[in-house]
Amino acid sequence: MTLLVSVFAAVICTVIWYKKAPKSEMMVGVLCWMYWGASLMWLIDAVFEYAELGAEYFTPAPADMLNDLFLGLSVVALGLVIWLVILLIKDPRGVIKEAIFKKKGK
Amino acid sequence: MACFLVSAAEAVVTTVAAKVVEKREKEQPELEISFDGAKTESVARIPFSRKLKWLSRMLWGGSVLLMFEHIWHGEVIPFFPFLSAMADPEDAAAMFHEMATVGVAMAALVTLVWLCVVLVTALIEKRAVKEAKELAASKK
Fold first, then answer.
1. How many CB atoms lie within 10 A of CB B76?
2. Do the beta carbons of residue A35 and residue A79 sit within 8 Å?
3. CB B107 within 8 A of CB B6
4. Which residue of B4, B46, B55, B58 to mutate against A (max A Cβ within 10 Å)?
5. Which one of A40, A67, A83 would you mutate to disrupt binding with B, by most B Cβ within 10 Å of its Cβ?
6. How many alpha carbons lie under 13 Å from residue B89 in its C-beta half-sphere?
7. Count of structural domains, chain A
8. Residue B76: what are its φ and ψ, rounded to 5°?
9. ipTM
């Protein structure tokens, strides 16, 4: 479930990036690389787990599924927070800079 | 247990490598290419340092999000030795085995996918250069 949630997040971010490309004011590319990286890593995790459990891997207990969904959503939220921090620090549109200098100017 | 540490170590290496390559890199010459057959635009080839940054972003992003998953499962703890498996030698051995198998496979897959992306990008660039040359020849 965590893999599924991160793959969906990666796909959605890639579509948003493609729609806005070549402009990258919002740095959506950062989110794409982050979610794709995590998805690939969880894919390997899933392959090893499948090798261990076999078909049982596809029939998790409802409680485990709910916990994994909760984890997946939390991972997506953490990714968004990291992206937001990077966006505000790099400030590609100069919004933060403008706000600071305007305040100083007053 | 701690499989993300392998990718994190690779991320450190690629980040340093990207910085070193970026310093040594010369500015790429601009090419004039056509996007719709008539209108032309000047573009430059993507420098290798930028391509390396793609890999480090995937590795850093994946490692951080996986570390969060390990915190979630109680495998990463906020006090020394930071990995719960280190408390027991048997668990530590299992952790190192997991790092050698799952961790290495994770880093290898991410690198392989990055290589595919770089290869596709190189093909697109090659095609653009070819078009640029044809465009320049037709202008003469």
1. 20
2. yes
3. yes
4. B58
5. A40
6. 0
7. 1
8. -110, 130
9. 0.89
**How many angstroms separate the Cα of B111 from the Cα of each of A22, A26, A38, A73, B51?**
25, 26, 13, 26, 12
Q: Which two tokens stand for residue B66?
A: 């996986």
Which structural domain, as residue segments, surrounds residue A61? 2-105
Using an 8 Å Cβ cutoff, are B110 and B13 in contact?
no
Evaluate the CA torsion angle B26, B27, B32, B34 in order and state its sign.
positive
The predicted-structure confidence for A52-92, as pLDDT tens digits, reads as follows 999 998 999 999 999 999 999 999 999 999 999 999 999 98
CB contact under 8 A, A34 and B102: no
Inter-residue contact B31 to B42 (CB < 8 Å):
yes
Buried b (16+ CB within 10 A) or exposed e, A31-42: bbbbbbbbbbbb
Backbone φ/ψ region at B74: left (φ over 0), alpha (ψ -120 to 50), beta: left
Interchain proximity B68–A74, CB inside 8 Å: yes
